[in-house]
Design a protein that fits this description.
Structural class: alpha/beta
Shape: globular
CATH topology of the largest domain: TIM Barrel
Number of strands: 8
Number of helices: 14
Largest sheet: 8 strands, parallel, barrel
Order of helices and strands: HHHHHEHEHEHHEHEEHEHHEH
């Protein structure tokens, strides 16, 4: 293809998209002005327009792929299309979640640059609900794939955020948390689950899905044991898995991730055929919160690694990091990452929890980011590049 033809096609595609959106906006404005009762339908239609716009953005970005990043990801390009290869990758699948990467992944790429590496995985968090931002994040997922990586989606079942108008079979919002997992297992949320399954199927690339994480923690999430029995959680997980199977979705890698501080996690295991990865969070809070205290990586991890190894599944450290309160964070990272693949051969993935305002465990905001700490990034870079992955 010549350069002129390439740009001609892009210009034509841009004009068509802008004309479509403009005419649609004019038409819908007129309709809504006449009949206010169809505003919800209009919003749904704009969701459709947004998806088409995402498709345009995806293919445009594909034309302008960052050659340097793709070059560094060549080893991963050979493995990312094959689910079996992702369950036993030749190298640890590094990744990160950054709360400042909602609109784009510039902060993720800045972290990569500082660490002199490239992340095969990028993690995003999506709550359940009927609002537009709670639908399957098509554009974000396609953006991740376009950049040569794969998404890890932490999918959080907040059941109170569904509108009764759209989901009339649900209990009143204030009653949904208690016994909510049983309602999922009964199929009351199937319409929403099926929508996600169908959208994931369209992607045609593997997607890591971490649903209902830390389900055995009674103090943090509504899907915990304060509202549900362990067997209800298991039935809900199995039901979601079966819904995906019935929709012929075969590109999901299921990540089960209990809270390791509560030793009853075995009671929540959905079963061997329903789980692909064993996940866990390794976060050292130090003295930032009263219930913690400074703990080394080995103190936090070793006994659980030995236990989870018996599941004979690849292990993912889905949230990894330390705060600076009560110890030396640089030493913590150095000891944690030193020869990690050799010490813990079943660990196949590790994702940095690079969050600047974590309010999930404390009244004050906690900052896990280290991208601007030159000493921390230098130490982490040295250790992970000693693994000779890339």
């Amino acid at each position: 293809m010549t350069t002129n033809n390439f740009f001609d096609k892009k210009i034509i595609r841009s004009i068509k998209l802008l004309a479509f959106i403009g005419l649609t906006a004019i038409l819908l404005f007129g309709i809504v002005s006449v009949n206010k009762s169809i505003q919800y339908s209009v919003l749904d239609f704009f969701d459709f327009v947004e998806t088409k716009g995402s498709d345009f953005e995806f293919y445009t970005l594909l034309d302008n792929r960052d050659n340097d990043r793709s070059e560094h990801m060549q080893w991963f390009a050979k493995n990312k299309f094959n689910k079996d290869s992702l369950l036993n990758p030749p190298y640890i699948l590094l990744g990160a979640h950054d709360n400042n990467a909602e609109k784009n992944f510039g902060t993720i790429f800045k972290l990569e640059e500082k660490l002199e590496t490239t992340f095969p995985l990028i993690q995003i968090y999506v709550p359940w609900g009927s609002r537009r931002e709670q639908k399957f994040p098509v554009n974000r997922v396609k953006n991740i794939i376009n950049k040569g990586s794969l998404p890890l989606i932490t999918w959080e079942p907040w059941l109170q955020q569904f509108e009764s108008r759209k989901y009339p079979k649900l209990r009143p919002a204030e009653e949904r948390n208690e016994g909510g997992m049983a309602d999922i297992a009964k199929g009351l949320y199937d319409e929403y689950i099926i929508e996600w399954a169908q959208e994931i199927k369209k992607i045609k690339m593997p997607i890591f899905l971490r649903w209902g994480h830390e389900m055995n923690d009674a103090y943090r999430y509504a899907w915990g044991p304060q509202n549900n029995k362990s067997y209800e959680y298991i039935k809900a997980w199995q039901h979601i898995h079966e819904v995906f199977t019935k929709q012929n979705v075969d590109n999901v890698i299921w990540v089960w991730c209990p809270h390791i501080s509560y030793l009853d996690y075995d009671e929540y295991y959905p079963g061997h055929k329903y789980v692909d990865y064993i996940g866990m969070n390794l976060l050292n809070y130090g003295e930032a919160v009263s219930w913690a205290g400074w703990r080394s990586f080995s103190e936090l991890f070793d006994k659980h690694y030995t236990h989870f190894a018996y599941y004979d599944k690849p292990i993912m450290i889905a949230e990894f990091g330390t705060l600076e309160y009560g110890g030396d964070e640089n030493q913590w990272y150095a000891e944690a990452l030193d020869s990690l693949p050799q010490k813990y051969p079943q660990v196949k993935s590790l994702l940095f929890f690079h969050v600047s305002d974590d309010n999930t465990t404390s009244l004050k905001s906690l900052d896990w980011q280290f991208v601007d700490d030159s000493l921390s990034t230098s130490i982490i870079s040295k250790k992970i590049n000693q693994w000779k992955q890339f």
